[in-house]
Amino acid sequence: MNFDLAIVEENAGQIWRGFLATIGLSVVILLVGTALGTGIAFARESCNRFLSLPAAAFVNLFRATPALVVLYFTFYAFPQFGVRMTPIAAATVGLATIGTAYLSEDIRGSLRAIDPGQWRAANALGMPYWWTVRRIVLPQMIPIAVAPYITRAMLIVKSTSIAGIVAVSDLTGVTSGLVSLTYRAVEFLTVAATLYLLLNTVLSILQIWAERRFVLRSGH
User: Fold this and answer.
1) Which segment of 97-111, 119-133, 189-203 scores lowest on mean pLDDT?
2) What's the CATH number where 117 sits?
3) Do 149 and 106 contact (CB within 8 A), yes or no?
């Protein structure tokens, strides 16, 4: 069987639009997940049970629920409650919720790697909580979080592939449609796999750069 490059070129526009949709969806999920996940991570580490218990319940619920079930719920079940969303909005909400739960644990792990004595020392000096976080905790937490964060970003990029199930024209959704239309699975699946590999290779390079930068900054 020959690899028909011409049929890929004929549909390059659709593939490119699907690729951009995958990038856009991944970026939004990462931004939302990072912002909310950081807040949830700090809430889980709080001594206030009114913050820590709901945060723990959220994380455990959505880490235990398959992403596909959450996606189906946002797309098919929400309309029964009067909440109707476009496919891309439903996919974003569902996948961002799952991403938030996992990212919060990655961030919390980095947070817990910091010596608790530093919190106590800052408290003894009378430093405000958020000043301690900004000047003492975050500068130490971010270098620790780089590797797990980039790994999670890679997983998020790959998780967007299920968005096509709810009619999102992402890379996998477009690829699936073209395979069904042309019966040329090898060509389109190879292109899709290559593009996913490209995205995650860029993230791997970003991880190497970030880790080296933090090592140089720390002087080690």
Assistant:
1) 119-133
2) 1.10.3720.10
3) yes
Length of the chain: 220
Looking up tokens 């909310």 gives 36
Q: How many domains does the chain have?
A: 1
Which residue has 């130490």 as its token pair?
140
**Res. 218: pLDDT tops 60:** no
Nearest Cα to 46, choosing from 129, 125, 123?
129
* Dihedral sign (CA 106, 111, 112, 114): positive
What confidence tier does 182 reach under pLDDT thresholds 50, 70, 90? Answer: very high
Q: What is the pTM of this model?
A: 0.90
Q: Which residue has the tokens 């659709």?
A: 14
Distance CA 220, CA 217 (A): 8
128: left (phi over 0), alpha (psi -120 to 50) or beta: beta
Full DSSP string of 104-137 = HHHHHHHHHTS-HHHHHHHHHTT--HHHHIIIII
Supply the Cα-derived Rg of the chain in whole angstroms.
21
